[in-house]
Amino acid sequence: MTIDVSILISGVSLLVAGIVAIVSIRRGNSSVDKQEASQITTLIVKLENIAEGVNEIKADMRSMRNDVQELRDRMVIVEQSTKSAHHRLDTIVNKERSDTND
C-alpha cells in the first residue's frame, strides 16, 4: 500500500492550512478582545469623569442653597429694619405736622 506523493502533500497542506486558520482566528479574537477591553476602559474612565462632575455640581448646589438661605435670613433682618425705620419716619412726619398745625 503506497501513498501517492501528491495525496500526501495535499494532506499535509490541508493540515497546515487548518493550523494556520486556527491560529489566525485565535489571534483575531485576541485583538478583538484587546480592542473591546480598551473601549470598555475608555468608557469606564469617561463615566468616572462624569460622576466626578456630578459630585462637583451637587457640592456647588449645596453651597448655593446655603448662600440663598443666608440671603433670606439677611433679607428678613433688612425688612424688619426698614419697617422700623419707616415707623420712626412716620412718627417724625406726624410730629412735624402737628407742630406746624399748632
Arithmetic mean pLDDT: 87
Structural class: mainly alpha
Please indicate the percent range of residues in DSSP E strands (runs of 2 or more): under 5%
Helix content estimate: over 70%
The biggest beta sheet is recorded as:
none
Number of helices: 1
Structural features, described:
This protein has 102 residues and is an all-alpha fold. Helix content is 95%, strand content 0%. It contains 1 helix and no strands. The relative contact order is 0.03.
List keywords for this structure.
rod-shaped, 1 helix, 0% strand, mainly alpha, single chain, 102 residues
Task: Give a topology summary.
Layout: H1 5-101
Quick structural overview:
The protein is mainly α.
